[in-house]
């Protein structure tokens, strides 16, 4: 009887085990790149001004943009985006009129092919595309340096306020905070946009700002890697250089960037400055494989999205065509090419470089995966 019971129990156990093993294995999540063509993937790496989506819009200077900047999506823009579906659109002050217009514009932009992410420079202080428009009635801040003098609480409150209204307007990414250390008193670009000339103080406030911004549902972006604070020239117009070694940068410029990465930064913006003692030549850091891949990704361990500073700036355009610079930036390790004026020609060039074997398609895939994670 005992033997019969044992056999019966064993049979029951086998049946039970068999039932468990018959369950279907967990299905892996779908590949976000599945079904995307090479052209669509490369287009995703370009984040543009609204004006670049409108072939009929021609501008020679920033004054033209201010006078005639686009504030609504046209049928031509929809057609352009359908053919070259960009991954993001960046808004400037001249694209913004009032709350109603901005809300409608953002909604229309997000409805374009590819459903681009919407970005803006809303640091607080002099760089605040929305708050500096009186039609919005939002808090305005003198500068980040001024907030820093008031303490961490003031920085946290300001960043939280900025994040809240950006999220309310449907904006996904704020190209802030400035993670530069303002060590050069002759610096005409950064100055009080930075929190401090002390790297440790700057690091603490960069992390504070970033966390407060992202707590409101808006991604922050550290800028400008590998540090624009010790230069005196303006890369909007031409060449700028830092003569620091990497070891020197680790003691100063890298301190806030490390703090921001540790605080969860998903994006970092490059600087167009040359750092010959780091890169080994005078190429702008945006186009340097050493700076982006070996230093930022390799040594600092950053695995998020690397965004170039605007590719229409003089430090790039005075040395390279848009096509040349775009291919070089991708080879260097950039994931997003920002404000390439004729982005369609640049997309075609990068795509051709992949087809010619100059750039592995796996390199494109890695960038697009990082970008698509921002939409999760």
Q: Please estimate the helix content.
A: 40-55%
The structural class is alpha/beta
Write down the CATH topology of the largest domain. Answer: TIM Barrel
The ordered H/E elements are HHEHHEHEEEHHEHEHHEHHEHHEHH
Query: What is the percentage of strand-forming residues?
Result: 5-15%
CATH class of the largest domain: Alpha Beta
Can you summarize the main beta sheet? 8 strands, parallel
Structural write-up:
- The protein has 376 residues and is an alpha/beta fold.
- It contains 16 helices and ten strands.
- β2, α5 and β3 form a beta-alpha-beta unit.
List keywords for this structure.
376 residues; eight-stranded parallel beta sheet; alpha/beta; 2 domains; globular; two-stranded antiparallel ribbon; 10 strands; TIM Barrel; disordered N terminus
Give the topology:
Layout: H1 2-21, H2 38-44, E1 46-48, H3 62-68, H4 75-83, E2 88-91, H5 99-110, E3 117-120, E4 122-124, E5 127-128, H6 144-150, H7 152-168, E6 173-174, H8 199-214, E7 219-225, H9 246-251, H10 254-262, E8 267-270, H11 276-279, H12 289-299, E9 305-307, H13 314-317, H14 322-332, E10 337-338, H15 343-355, H16 361-373
Parallel strand pairs: 1-2, 1-10, 2-3, 3-6, 6-7, 7-8, 8-9
Antiparallel strand pairs: 4-5
Helix pairs in contact: 2-15, 2-16, 6-7, 7-8, 8-10, 14-15
Give a quick summary of the entry.
The protein contains 16 helices and 10 strands.
């Amino acid at each position: 009887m005992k033997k019969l019971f044992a056999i019966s129990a064993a049979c029951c156990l086998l049946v039970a085990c068999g039932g468990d093993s018959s369950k279907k294995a967990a299905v892996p999540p779908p590949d976000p790149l599945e079904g995307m063509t090479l052209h669509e993937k490369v287009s995703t790496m370009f984040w543009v001004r609204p004006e670049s989506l409108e072939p009929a819009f021609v501008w020679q200077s920033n004054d033209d943009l201010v006078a005639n900047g686009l504030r609504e999506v046209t049928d031509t823009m929809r057609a352009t985006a359908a053919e070259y579906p960009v991954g993001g659109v960046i808004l400037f002050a001249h694209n913004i009129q009032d709350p109603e217009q901005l809300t409608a514009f953002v909604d229309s932009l997000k409805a374009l092919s590819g459903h681009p992410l919407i970005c803006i420079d809303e640091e607080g202080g002099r760089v605040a595309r929305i708050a500096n428009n009186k039609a919005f009635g939002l808090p305005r801040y003198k500068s980040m340096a001024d907030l820093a003098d008031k303490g961490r609480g003031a920085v946290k409150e300001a960043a939280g306020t900025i994040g809240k209204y950006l999220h309310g307007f449907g904006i996904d990414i704020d190209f802030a905070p400035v993670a530069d250390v303002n060590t050069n008193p002759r610096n005409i670009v950064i100055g009080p946009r930075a929190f401090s000339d002390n790297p440790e103080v700057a690091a603490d406030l960069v992390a504070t700002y970033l966390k407060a911004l992202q707590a409101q549902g808006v991604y922050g972006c550290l800028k400008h890697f590998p540090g624009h604070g010790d230069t005196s020239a303006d890369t909007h117009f031409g060449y700028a250089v830092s003569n620091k070694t990497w070891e020197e940068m680790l003691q100063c410029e890298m301190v806030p960037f490390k703090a921001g990465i540790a605080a969860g930064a998903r994006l970092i913006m490059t600087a167009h400055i040359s750092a010959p003692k780091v890169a080994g030549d005078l190429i702008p850091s945006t186009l340097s494989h050493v700076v982006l891949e070996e230093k930022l990704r390799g040594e600092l361990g950053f695995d998020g999205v690397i965004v170039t500073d605007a590719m229409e700036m003089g430090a790039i355009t005075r040395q390279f065509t848009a096509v040349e610079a775009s291919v070089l930036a991708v080879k260097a390790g950039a994931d997003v090419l920002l404000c390439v004026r004729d982005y369609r020609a640049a997309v075609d060039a990068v795509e051709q470089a992949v087809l010619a074997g100059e750039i592995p398609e796996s390199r494109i895939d890695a960038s697009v995966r990082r970008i698509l994670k921002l939409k999760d």
